[in-house]
Each structure stands twice: as structure tokens, then as C-alpha cells.
Design goal:
Helices cover 47% and strands 21% of the residues. With 356 residues, it is an alpha+beta fold. Among the domains are: 125 residues, OB fold (Dihydrolipoamide Acetyltransferase, E2P) (Beta Barrel), CATH 2.40.50; 60 residues, Winged helix-like DNA-binding domain superfamily/Winged helix DNA-binding domain (Arc Repressor Mutant, subunit A, Orthogonal Bundle), CATH 1.10.10. Strands 1, 5, 6, 7, 8 and 9 form a 6-stranded mixed sheet that branches. A 3-stranded antiparallel sheet has the order 2-3-4. Strands 10-12-11 form a 3-stranded antiparallel sheet.
């Protein structure tokens, strides 16, 4: 009976993207010194444990006695920092033997470190870590996007209600079954005073994450299907016909679980913002005009892919090729950083880039 109660009391392993996790700056502890600590995210996650599948692009031994390892695990929105030491012996051994880049799946504890200078650093301490593959990573992205979108809608409904305190809790209890999320939403609304800016940023990161799964190159093309042109769902369906049944399954799950209208609305908002930011009216693209050129990051990704024939390529070589392609060095360097953060390339040693 006691064992069963412990299992029931075990904290939820939340699915959270790195962008949201790293944007969090509210930390609470409930109870005595042995009580769990929580990181409250802007979408109301009351996070003590989390579940991640991503690409480890860097592993470093930072312990004096070879007993502390630091790693970076990337998803399409950013990077988690992992630490494994004497209290995580299996994870430490796994990281010490890992050949990067590598897909991994892990369940870990959310941790914060606050040195004397006042800065706060978030990290994850792995409880269990195993090898994964690209399809598992893609399914994690879709599932995490769905869950995050659900939390954003709950948060927006709570904000629109104008309620607080007991009234807000009663309002949420009618919509949400997860008591931890209800509690977390209340904490987040009280703490994060600029949610009107944070939530759209998280939405944009979701669109980007889903697009990286539904396009080999990260560039969305139009296809004549029943879905809105350019939508992530549409592209996934067109790709599924060209590939294999596993990817068809991913398409079907994405269609069933991700709110297509919601993602398309997010993309529409981005388009409207682009127009309003411009000083001149945007002229509609005619049907016979050439399609827009890919963004610099995708050109850089193609350059790295072309120059890396198995042993990597030099950073300077990529910059030189980018300059020939009409991309300024500063923009190219920023694009390389973005690709590294997304786990699409990594730096095995200073000055060398390798594709994942």
C-alpha cells in the first residue's frame, strides 16, 4: 500500500519546450526543506520533473574527479542544460560514453542555481536517460506543441475572465482537471505581468517547432490539398504520401491532435505584424512571380550540409560561402547559432562545424 501511495504522489513529468522552460523565473517551495521545489512557467506548468526528447550536441566533463558531466540538449525552440554527477551515476556513465550528436530521451528534475551575483540558471538533472531516434523526437515535438497550445488557451481564458483568487480557481476547476495546472496558472498570472507579450512569443515558437518536423528543410511549400496552403498540416500530409507508413501515422496524429485552425491563426497574426511593421504597403505576389527566397538560416544549413562530407567543415569556410551567397557575415554567424540551438549542427571543436 505504501509503495502504491508513493507512485501516486510522484510528480508529473511535463512536456515543455526549452524556450518556455528558459523563460521561467518563478520558483516556489511548498512545505518543509524536504518538500519538492517547483519552477512555474508562463503557461502555468508547476514543474518539478520534465520529459524531453532532443539532440545532445555537446558533452563536457567539468568535474575534478571525472564525476560531473554537463550536456546541452536541443529542441527546435532552444537548449536545455543537463548536469549528471555522483547522484546520477547511470546518467553520468551514459553521457561519458555518448558520441555526439545523438538523439536522447530523458526524464529529469528541474533545477535552478542562483550564484551570489544574482543571476539565475535553470538546468535538468536526469533521472533516466536513453537513446532515441528522429521519429521519437518528432512525435515528442508534436505532442509537446499540442500540450503547450492547450495550456496557452487555458491561460488566455483565465486572463480574459478578469477573475482572481478563489473566483479564478473555481472558474479553472470547471475547465481543467489537473489540480497542479490550476495551481500553476494562478501562480503564473500573479507573477508574470507581461503575459500579453510572453504568450505570443511562445505561440511563435510552437509554429517554428512544428514546421521543423513537417519539412525536411524547414521551408514550407504550397501543395494542392484540402488544408490551407502553407499550413504545417498540409505539408505533413503531402510528405507522408512520398515516404513511409510511420510518417503517415505522424501526419494522422498531428491532424487529430494539433488544432489546425489555431496554428493557421498564429501564422496569420505573424503575417499581419510583418505588414504593419513595414513603412509601405505590401504588394501581393502574382501567380507567375518567383517564390520567395529561403531565409538565410536555411541557406546556411544547406551550405553546411554541402561542405560537410563526413569530417565537418570549417567555420570560416561556411562564412566565406555565405558571403558568396550574398549573406553578410554577422547574419551568417547568427544563423549558425540558431542552427546549433535547434540541434541541426554542432561544434565538435572550436572552429569546426558538423551537421547533425
Amino acid at each position: 500500500m505504501e509503495k502504491t501511495e508513493k507512485i501516486m504522489d510522484r510528480e508529473i513529468a511535463w512536456r515543455i519546450f526549452a524556450h518556455e522552460f528558459n523563460s521561467s523565473n518563478l520558483y516556489i517551495s511548498e512545505g518543509d526543506e524536504r518538500a519538492p521545489n517547483y519552477i512555474i512557467t508562463p503557461t502555468g506548468v508547476k514543474c518539478n520533473r520534465l520529459f524531453i526528447i532532443g539532440v545532445i550536441t555537446e558533452v563536457e566533463n567539468i568535474g575534478k574527479d571525472n564525476n560531473l558531466w554537463r550536456a546541452r540538449i536541443a529542441d527546435p525552440t532552444g537548449v536545455f542544460t543537463l548536469y549528471a554527477g555522483q547522484y546520477q551515476p547511470e546518467a553520468a556513465i551514459f553521457l561519458s560514453e555518448l558520441e555526439v550528436p545523438a538523439y536522447v530521451a530523458l526524464v529529469g528534475k528541474a533545477r535552478k542555481y542562483e550564484p551570489e551575483d544574482g543571476n539565475v540558471y535553470l538546468s535538468v538533472r536526469p533521472e533516466e536517460i536513453n537513446a532515441a531516434d528522429e521519429k521519437q523526437r518528432d512525435m515528442w515535438i508534436l505532442e509537446t506543441a499540442e500540450r503547450t497550445l492547450e495550456r496557452i488557451k487555458i491561460m488566455e481564458d483565465a486572463l480574459d475572465s478578469g477573475l482572481s483568487g478563489t473566483q479564478l480557481q473555481e472558474f479553472l476547476e470547471k475547465k481543467v482537471k489537473n489540480a497542479a495546472l490550476i495551481n500553476g496558472v494562478g501562480h503564473a498570472i500573479r507573477h508574470y505581468k507581461n503575459l500579453d507579450r510572453i504568450l505570443p512569443e511562445i505561440k511563435n515558437s510552437l509554429v517554428h517547432a512544428v514546421k521543423t518536423v513537417t519539412s525536411d528543410s524547414g521551408i514550407i511549400h504550397d501543395h494542392p490539398t484540402g488544408f490551407q496552403k502553407g499550413s504545417s498540416i498540409e505539408l505533413t500530409k503531402s510528405m507522408a504520401h512520398e515516404k513511409n507508413p510511420v510518417e503517415t501515422d505522424i501526419t494522422e496524429e498531428l491532424e487529430e491532435r494539433i488544432d489546425v485552425k489555431e496554428l493557421n491563426e498564429i501564422e496569420s497574426v505573424e503575417a499581419i505584424e510583418d505588414v504593419t511593421d513595414s513603412s509601405e504597403m505590401q504588394i501581393p505576389v502574382q501567380a507567375n512571380e518567383e517564390p520567395p527566397k529561403p531565409e538565410p538560416k536555411e541557406i546556411i544549413a544547406d551550405i553546411i550540409d554541402r561542405l560537410d562530407i563526413g569530417k565537418g567543415t570549417s567555420f570560416s569556410g561556411v562564412i566565406e560561402a555565405a558571403l558568396k551567397a550574398g549573406i553578410e557575415a554577422e547574419i551568417a554567424e547568427s544563423a549558425i547559432k540558431d542552427l546549433m540551438d535547434e540541434g541541426r549542427c554542432y561544434e565538435p571543436k572550436i572552429g569546426t562545424l558538423r551537421k547533425v
